[in-house]
Amino acid sequence: MKSNLPRAAWTTGATVLAPISWGTSYVTITELLPNGRPLLVATLRVVPAGFALLIVGAVASRWRPRGAEWWRLGTLALFNFGIFFPLLVVAVYRLPGGVAAAAGGLQPLLVAALSWRIAGRRPRRLELVVGGIAALGVALVVIRPGAGLDPVGLLAAIAANVSFAGGVVLTKRYPAPANRVAATGWQLLMSGVILVPLTAIAEGGPRPLTGPNVAGFAYLSLAATALAFVLWFNGVQRLPTAAPPLLGLAAPITGAVLGWAILDQSLSPLQLTGFVVTFAAIGYGASLPASAADAVSLGVCDGPAIGSGFGTPDFRCQWANPGPRARLRQGEVKLGRPSPRRQGHGRRTRREPGRATER
User: Fold this and answer.
1) Closest CA to 238 of 164, 294, 182
2) Is the pTM of this model over 0.90?
């Protein structure tokens, strides 16, 4: 057990880097990228990142999706990027930044609800309480007095977070790909199939980019998207279900800190209180151990793990030789005591010509 603690801490630390990088997106977009081109920003964020990850993934292995992996990756691409980014853009442009970010504080509750509905994982009461307190803490940090509430923008913000929460649940539930880097690249490119024509119709072609534009797009695409989502998806599959949404609260916190440090935005005592509450929720998420509910909802395996490129086994049933409990869950064996012959006991020797059979 002790040997697993450094691995869990490493996975948690790597996962929280993703929302921290997302929290830098607001400053990057407002200070370096073209104004009034939200869909162009989303498109140039995901498409170059997708190509970059496919190139890097090809170095590790020649894996590509096959069979059912295509529709699984397509579904994940739809929830994680294709639906999420356009709705997020609508929310950001129709709502004050604080209100749009506050909707992200609902992620722990949304993931808990969708995990119950999709994966049959009943959330613990403490998870719901922490999720509610975390949403309140984020709201205290990012919502300023007098913030307006546009109904369309508010619905878009909630729908965007429902889409992203659905992506978290499905990422946890679907089998882990053999090449996480390449699989993330395929997701990003699949979402580009939606974003590229949508951008062309709504905003037209791109205008000439300046040096700061190129630098901003490079950072946003390679660091805050390509690397960030590889770390995020890895954490979603390895950490307990309730942990990643709580770690994701680092995004609005990072945005608020950078707004204070770079954009000279003030922080009120109420916001500082929200910081304390949200940091406590993030700390709770970082300390969560793997629960039995997570293992049961994903299947329990007894065989050797198939490597996924990160050196530690997944919680899900990605095994070369699934054990009887996993096969029972998959409907491959029936209830009852397994046959000794099935378990490898009482084997008979092979009959060979000219020799008597050993008994």
Assistant:
1) 294
2) no
Q: What is the pLDDT of residues 166-217, one digit of tens each?
A: 999 999 999 989 899 999 999 999 999 999 999 999 888 888 999 999 999 9
DSSP characters over 284-338: HHHTPPPPHHHHHHH----SPBPP-SSSS--SSS-BSS--HHHHHHTTSS-SSPP
Residue 26 tokens read as 């607001």
**Long-range contacts made by residues 158-163, C-beta under 8 angstroms, separation at least 24?**
158/103, 158/106, 159/83, 159/87, 160/83, 160/84, 160/87, 160/88, 160/91, 160/103, 161/103, 161/104, 161/106, 161/107, 161/110, 162/110, 162/114, 163/79, 163/80, 163/83, 163/84, 163/87
